[in-house]
Structure formats: C-alpha cells, structure tokens
Amino acid sequence: MLGKDQVMCSRYFWCITLLLLCHVQMEAQLLTNALPVPGSTEPSAQQTQQQPADSSNSAQAPAQLPDDPSRQVLPVAHPEPALPAGLPVRWEAKQQTRVGDVSTLTGEVVLYYKDYVLHADKVVYRHDTSTVEAEGHLQLDGGPDDAVITASHGEMHLDDHTGAFYDVTGTFGVRHVGHAIIYSTPDPFIFQGRVLLQTGERAYRIVDGSMTSCRLPKPDWQLISRSIQVADGKASTHNSVFEFWHIPLFYLPFVARNLDDTGRESGFLLPSGENSGVKGLVIGDEVYWVINRSMDLTVGAEYWSKRGFAPSGSYRYRGPGLDALAVRWSALLDRGIEETPAGATQPTLVNQGGADIIAYGRKYFTPDTRLAGAVEYLSSYVYRLAFDENLSQATSSEVQSDVALIHDHQGFVPSLNLQRFENFAGTASTSDAPVVNVPEVRILHLPLLRFDALDRPLLPGGASGNADISPVYWGLSSTIADMDRAEPHFHSRNVGRLDIYPHIELPIHLGDWNFLPAVAVRCTQYSGSELQDLTGNGVPSVQHNPLNRSDFEASLDIRPPALERDFALTGLHRELRHVIEPEIFYRYVTGINNAQHVLQFDTMDIASNTNEAGFSLTQRFYVRRTDAAPCDAKEPDLFTFNAAKEQAPNLDPLGGDVSNSSSLNQTPTADNPTGCKPPAREWASWQIAQKYYINPNFGGALIDNRRNVFDATLDMTGASYLTSPRNIAPIISRMRFEAIDNLRLEWDLDYDPKAGRITSSDLFAGYSFGRTTVGLGHAYLNAADESNGQATIIQSEQIKPFLYFGKPSDVGLSVALNASYDTTHGQIQYEGVEAIYNWNCCGLQAGYRRFSLGTLRDEGEWLWGFTLSSIGTAGNIRRSTSVFPTPAMLQLAY
Questions:
Q1: Can you name the residues that pair with 304 across neighbouring β-strands?
Q2: pLDDT digit string (tens) for 329-372?
Q3: pTM of this prediction?
Q4: Among residues 69, 166, 439, 563, which is most buried (max CB within 10 A)?
Q5: Could you give the CA distance from residue 650 to residue 644 in angstroms, rounded to a whole number?
Q6: What is the DSSP code (8-state) at residue 657?
Q7: Nearest Cα to 554, choosing from 605, 590, 583?
Q8: Contact 870, 173 (CB under 8 A)
C-alpha cells in the first residue's frame, strides 16, 4: 500500500506531466517555444473571416533553430496580449490565404473596420501590426469626415490611424446611400494628389495636389499646391496657384477653408471693386477675425477715387440661450464735392460724409428678466440719401433707438425704457456752412419707467381652485417719464409726465353673440404745457405751468354671429364656403378740455374727447377639395365645425374635436371613399370699415385749417391728419385674393367721402409660373401737411414693376429687373437689372442700377460679382446692392 504522502506525490507528478503535454490548449500563457508551423491554404470559395484589430494569432512565425545541437528547446514564458476592446476587422473576398500573421485576400475584396469600408482587388492584412496593404481599384469610404478616397494603391495602419495612398482622388463630405451620392455638407471638399498621407486621426497631408469644390475630373477652378494640410476641420495651404478653366490666374501666399459648414476661419476676404458715377473707381477689402466660438468681427475699408476713404465693419455675438448682439457701421471720410448753390457764381466745396451705426441685441438675466433693444446713430441724413445702397433705406428719414429692461412675472411687467427718435426731413443753412443736416424733430424719453398689469380676473379663485370664478377682468398701464422735444424754432426741455390708466372689462357670451363692454379712467400730469399760435406761423410756445389731464372712457365691442353658406363646385371638385363676420363698436371719452395745451411726445399725448361709433364687415371665402387626400388629425376642419357643434360637445374653438380630433374628418362618402378631407384654404377676404364721429370737433381739440392728429383717427387709416371738423371718417378697404394658384393680390384702399378723393392706396400683385415671377406695386397718397400755419395737401404716387426669373442660388441663368417710377415728379427714381449664371461650383454676376433722387443723387453703378463655392464672392454685389429680392420675398414663386 502506498502511504498518503506517496499518493499525493504521484498525483502531482501526473498533473505536471499532463500539463506539459497539453500546453497548447492553455490560452492564458505560452509556456514553450513552438516549432515552425507550415503554411496552410484556406478554401478558395468566398468566405467571411473575422479577426480582432489588435490581436496576435496563436500561430507564430517560423522560429530560428539553435546553432548548437547541445542546446535544448527550453520553455520560455511570453505573455499573450489581451483581446482589444475596439471593433473587429471583417472582410469578404473570393480567395483568402494565411501564412502566420499575414492574410492575403484577392478577388473583389471588401474590408470593414469601424465605420470604414475598403474596396480593392487585393488586400494584405498583417494581424500583428493591424496593417492593411491594398492595391487595384482601391476605394475607401466612410469615417468621421464622410470621406470617399480612390487610389491606385495604399496602406493603412489601423492602430495608429495613419496611412498612405498614391495617385489619389477623394472628397470629404460625401455619402453613398444605395446608388445615390448625398453631400453631408453643403460645401464638400474635393481634392486630388500624387500622395495622400494620413498623419493621425482626422489629419491628412496632400502632396503635389489640388483642392476644389467642383466635380472632377474637369473642375472649373482649383487651387494647386505642393502640400495641403487637412486637420482640425479645415484645409490650409501655402504658396498655391489659383487656376480657373485650366488657366493660372494668380498666386496666393496662404489659403484656408473650413470643412465644416459651421466652421469659421480668420483671414482676408476677397477684394471688392466697382466704378460708380458718384464714388468713382472703388477698391477695397475686409479682414475677418474669429474672436472665439461666440464672437466674430469684420473690419474693412474702401477707397473712392472721387470722395475718399469709406470704412465699414460688423460685430456679431451669440451667447447662451437667446442672448445675442450685432453691430454694423459704415462711414465716409469725404474730402468734398464742388457744387454751385442757387444764385451763386462760385462753386462751394460740400462735405457729404457721415457715419451710420446700428446695434441691436438682447440679454436674458433670468427667464423673466431681459434687456433688449435697437440703437441707431446717423450723423448726416445727406450721407444716407447720397450713398446708402438700399433704396428704401436711403429714402427713409427716420432714425429710432429703443432700449428696454423688462421683468415679466405672472403678468406684472415693470420696465425701464430709453427712447430716442429723430426725423431728418429738412436741411437748414447756417453761417458756418452752406448746408447743415438738422433733424426736423427730435424726441427723447430719458428715461421712461413703465408698469403694466396684464388683464386678469378681478376676484381671486374660490375654494374650488377655479381662477376664473369672476367674469370681470382688470388691467393697468402706468408710466413716468422725463421727455425732451426739439424742432426748428421750438424746444421743450425736461418735461416730466406721470400717467395712470386702469381699465375693467366684462366679456359677455349670449349664444353666438359676444359683447365686450369696458370702462377706464386716465389721469396724466405734465410739468409743462404749450400755447398754440393761432394767427402766426403755427409754432406753439412752451409754458412752464404744470398741466393735469384726466378723462373717463367707455367702450362696447359687439361681435354678432358669423353668417355662413356653402356652395358645391361639383365640376371643379371643390367646396366653397362664404363667411361674413360683422363687428360693431362704440367709444366715448370725456373730461379732456385742455387738449390744445398738451405737449406732444408720443401717442399717449394725442388723446381727446370723442363720441364715435363704427362698423367692420369682413367677408372670407374658403375652398376645399372634395376628392380624397391623406388624413391629418391635427388640421382643423373649418367646414364641419359649426355643423357638428351640437354632436361634438368637446369641440375646441379652432374646429377640432378634443376627444377625437380626427372623427369629424373621416366620414366615407361616394366621392371620398377614404373619408379624409383636405384642409380648407382661404381664397379671398375683403374687409370694409368706417367710423362716424358724433363729436366733429373732438371736444374743442381740433384747430381748423391746421394739421391735427388724434388717437381716434390713428386706428382707422394711414392718413390720420385732420384739417377741419368732420363726422365721417374715410372708408377703409382691405382686400386679399389668392384664388388662383401662384397669384397673390393685396389692395389697401382708404377713400375720403367728404373730400371725394382717395386718401391712400397700396396695391401689390404678383404671379409666378415656372421659375418666373412678374408683378407690380403701386402706392398713392394724399396726406395733410402744414406750411406757415396753413394746412396743405401733398401728393405722392409711385409705380414699382418687377420681373424675376430664377433665384440667385439656382444653377443656370437667373435674371432680375425692377424699377421705381415717381409719377408726381415724372421721373424714374430707381432702376436695376442683374443676371447670374451659376455652374455647380462657381458663378458670374453682372448688372446695372441707377439712382435718381433729385439734385443730391444721380448715380449709375455697374454691378459685378464672381463667386467660388467654399471661398467667397469677389465684387460689389452684396445683399444690399443686389437687384434680386430677399429669399422671404421670393417665397411667392416657390
């Protein structure tokens, strides 16, 4: 018998022996040097092989035998690396062989690694170094840059994110979706070169190559360079040559472009140049500086050969949330132009220079507290009129600034306002200079404190928690301000004003009838007043006597039920609904007996006694197709709303059933088997409104044969000035017509039955077909004016035709023509024509426009531009100078 110790020794002996004989089954460690392993050939049929990207195979390369036969193969421990945590390498091939750590794949090879896909005729994969060598129709797709690279041959080191490709053509920002190619960025980066070196993750260097945004192999333009660096989301190169249509044009010492469409890069912008009849030969450039990820700055200057230097720039900031700030400025350091004043024999040097600075932004301190506003400074109205690039802005004489600090919490809104208003409507001569810009009126509110309480129930909610237990609502508006107003021969300084205006409303609903009675009182205290000049030139005199104005107000707004009738247009597969919406209103104000002595700064100061009634009648025409269309449960059904009101008690005011919003739209019929009704569309609308003034003198506030304006006339017509007592206000008409597809017609008309003439008329008509939009604008005005204490009438009439073919971003030819003709003076104020032809990556622009704004500005200007995708635009065509309208105005055609 064996003893216990002997049994244990025998057990250890056998375990050690078996362990040595079966060591190849152990996966944790290699304990001996393995003998050479002959190569093996895999089956030739197409197979799928998967290997870790960083692992070493258990089959080692042939080992070197010892030179000395007496040396024995001794066990040496070599730790086996752990399996990588990354994604594996996977491939498909018609044939594959493996010798040691080298796998050779041939025949339509497709290799997958992470989000890369590599195609080639032959691929050699080294398992120990994770190296891929490919040749024959090499194409690499994917990656974080959406790259598509084709080359004759190349290699990739997967672990190090490095590689080299030869005779390469590629692009970043392109994806293959099925058989289609989709650009993942609006501006892809396309390149070709002798060698492409990948120096790291998302870092490349192109040797002896070019970059462009045009389609290969014949790009319209390209930048040729010995070396192009691609890293950090941008491509940069030094000492490059710009080539257009295979013609070298100019040398560029440094060029950089962003590969990300949201990226920005500091540097010089493309230069601008033009030839103007007023400015002369113009050349200039701008510098763009990316301050940080939230701010940028553009600063530049132009040299006008006839006038001098014109600096300009802009600053932009975008903060967290809705915080933002934008500043734009432009100026002219004018050396003057010689003009001969009327009655003079010698010319005088006139300086028309100036500066225009605009800033607007907002800042949220808390969700309820914000600072917002817009500020503009214009040093000279002549500068704007003579040199502004936009017609509507050049002819606008108003400059307004308004900044407010507002705290809005549960409907209580205290605020601090700073306001400044200027109107440069005239010029004046002084002894210091022939003509000096002076504002006709300047009004300041520095500061204006305001407290508003939005309408809310008069009584709090009861024990049931119903906040609307009271049908009576109240609101409050109150202000305290320090004001200043300056005009020629008139100046009221540091006038204080305190105003309190509480009001109460009682909404009443009787079936389909709605009533809104309201009462209010207003008390306004002024630290100064004025005394009207009824016999002289009409300029009042300022008095320092305080003035108190108070009134009582009552109003009633009645909304009768709308009248509706449906018509079936069977032949057109349409259903027409005619809706008539009447409204009757009455307003009474009493207690204001000193309106002629109130200094006027804003609309709060033009209150007067009134006893007025009026009506408004609006007709609407809705049309809906009766044939089948996809259901949309979110779209309200205007036709079935009233008819199903009794059957659907959960119907909301917009016409949707709250309990089942699609139930009313899904009733199958013979003409509509699916039960889906398309939404209704408003074809046309027409509103007629008028007021009747029971008190034609407005409580003695009206001064005969002068220009008068009251709040009772502001809300009905644009020509709100009165020159004599009247009972009947002008009839207003507001018409909208869109019954014909792609046709829009808007006509606002005010007719004065007392004077028997049109007070104002504003017409717009536009029609689009295909890529073409044609239209006409017409504006007519008869407005009251005052000269030397006497009321007069000034007339203005303008006709603005336009024709647009295509859009500035369309490929191919696009043309724009527009003009503005002043029939009162019998001259064309503005005319412009512009043509654009775009290729897939570049475009040419050319045009001409002319300003004729009296003797101050008679300028013809040639427009030109050359656009390179991803680079920019050279020339003088910008959004402000383009004859094409803004994208918002072109939505009619598309």
A1: 282, 308
A2: 999 999 888 777 766 777 888 888 999 999 999 999 999 999 99
A3: 0.72
A4: 439
A5: 10
A6: B
A7: 590
A8: no
